[in-house]
Amino acid sequence: MKLLAHILCLCLALAWVQSEEHAAAVLDRCEGLEMDAVAVNEEGIPYFFKGDHLFKGFHGKAELSNESFAELDDHHHLGHVDAAFHMHYEDNPADHDHMFFFLDTKVFSYYQHKLEDGYPKDISEVFPGIPDHLDAAVECPKPECDEDSVIFFKGDDIYHYNVRTKAVDEKEFKSMPNCTSAFRFMDHYYCFHGHMFSKFDPKTGEVHGRYPKEARDYFMRCSKFSDDSDHVERERCSRVHLDAITSDNAGNMYAFRGHHFLRRDEGNDTLKADTIEHAFKELHSEVDAVFSYDGHLYMIKDDHLFLYKVGEPHTHLDGYPKPLKEELGIEGPIEAAFVCEDRHIAHIIKDHKIYEVDLDASPRVAGNEVPIALFKKVDAAMCDALGLKVIVGNHFYHFGSPMLLAASRSLPEQHRVSLELFGCDH
Ligand SMILES: *[C@@H]1O[C@H](CO)[C@@H](O)[C@H](O)[C@H]1NC(C)=O
Ligand SMILES: *[C@@H]1O[C@H](CO)[C@@H](O)[C@H](O)[C@H]1NC(C)=O
Ligand SMILES: *[C@@H]1O[C@H](CO)[C@@H](O)[C@H](O)[C@H]1NC(C)=O
């Protein structure tokens, strides 16, 4: 299996040398790749390693790993990472927030993409008792594990490594498949095997619920998914950020991600999923922001505004799309947009600022801009009778008003998008 993987790697490597374009075609994560290693960076963004390439975040093309981590090349002719994890132990400031990579017999420690002095070192020196040629590794801080630990995987052998005492505890995770990579995301533990994954209990290795599941459905944004992908389940539970969200005047909610959207009708808890292409043909996919105003959905993509009249089916207004600058007085791309109960002001978030556009004015201009200190980037936002929800990655935050969003200096309570907006409990 290992040999086969190596031969496959070599063949792929040859293919890449032959043609960069070909490489992009080979390395399409939406085809269902088996990743070599997965770990989050300091900002919680997952890095998926495959061969000598790296996928950052949940969508986008692969880049060469050595562009971000140059030294990984120097000691390794095959150019792949066996395992990786993100050290997260606040009691241990020397290593806190470091990313560790394992290649054959060596371990590399990076802090903010810079290799730490003295690395790479032998695995046996830094993690005594842990074997070479690992398959996977994942951090496991207290109280998720009994002690601040790292869990290492090789074949069906599992090692709990105590970060403080360096004690190694060998475990048997009977119900779990052999992991080819593993990571901790939002306090949950995932073992990847092939292009599937299972969520497991880090103490016991138990897998609860219906696993394995497709890694693509949860951790990637694809234009197409496998034929047996359940669209509603996938879109409710995906950990990929939303592009946009809004609710129309009647209280129906629409949440957009990539090529798909979820809809919940007022007075009905059942979510429905559809492709954007089907319901909003002209827009096609990957919208930046959507708000609803006066019986219409204002859908913004790059520099253009698409205007749909709400109804079944939604109808695209003649003459649209029109340039965003002409219609709302602001250049794209924008991050999020929403209208609150005040009804005729669109609030637009772009580059750490929030702008107001009076929708009754002619021509419309974006003004009154106020900086937002709390977030580097906002994915989506919506405002309804319950107030303003600002969505960043897998979380959303409540604010009483747009003004309070701009004035806030500390994060309000974090809510989970999949659980609290879409009722996905796993
Ligand atoms: C990164 O790797 C590629 C292919 O493996 C190689 O052509 C390139 O020179 C490397 N770049 C650096 C900065 O080492
Ligand atoms: C898991 O790894 C062990 C070696 O540690 C191997 O004997 C076994 O066949 C592997 N299982 C699968 C399903 O690949
Ligand atoms: C809610 O929506 C589902 C799915 O479209 C439908 O089958 C059901 O009849 C609706 N229920 C109500 C109360 O409207």
The termini sit apart by: 31 Å
**So, the CATH homologous superfamily of the largest domain?**
Hemopexin-like domain
Summarize the main sheet: 5 strands, antiparallel
- Helical run tally: 10
Write the layout of secondary structure elements.
Layout (H helix, E strand, L loop, with lengths): L1 H17 L1 H7 L10 E4 L5 E5 L2 E4 L6 E2 H4 L14 E4 L12 E5 L2 E6 L2 E2 L5 E2 H4 L9 E5 L8 E6 L2 E6 L5 E4 L9 E5 L2 E6 L2 E4 L13 E2 H5 L11 H7 L6 E4 L5 E5 L2 E5 L6 E5 H4 L9 E5 L2 E6 L2 E6 L5 E2 L5 E2 H5 L7 E4 L5 E6 L2 E6 L7 E6 L8 E5 L2 E6 L2 E5 L2 H6 L7 E2 H5 L5
Helix pairs in contact: 1-2
The structure holds 2-acetamido-2-deoxy-beta-D-glucopyranose (3 copies).
Keywords: Disulfide bond, Glycoprotein, Heme, Iron, Metal-binding, Repeat, Secreted, Signal, Transport
Pfam families: Hemopexin (PF00045)
Family: Belongs to the hemopexin family.
Short summary:
The chain has about 425 residues and is of the alpha+beta class.
Description of the structure:
It contains ten helices and 34 strands. With 426 residues, it is of the alpha+beta class. It folds into two domains: 16-218, Hemopexin, CATH 2.110.10; 231-421, 4 Propeller (Hemopexin). Strands 5, 6, 7, 8 and 9 form a five-stranded antiparallel sheet that branches. Strands 22, 23, 24, 25 and 26 form a five-stranded antiparallel sheet that branches. β24 (304-309) and β25 (315-316) form a beta hairpin. α1 (2-18) runs antiparallel to α2. The chain is elongated and about 70 Å long. The two termini are 31 Å apart. 40% of the residues are buried. Bound molecules: 2-acetamido-2-deoxy-beta-D-glucopyranose (NAG) (3 copies). One 2-acetamido-2-deoxy-beta-D-glucopyranose (NAG) binds at residues 155-157, 178. Glycans are attached at residue 178. Belongs to the hemopexin family.
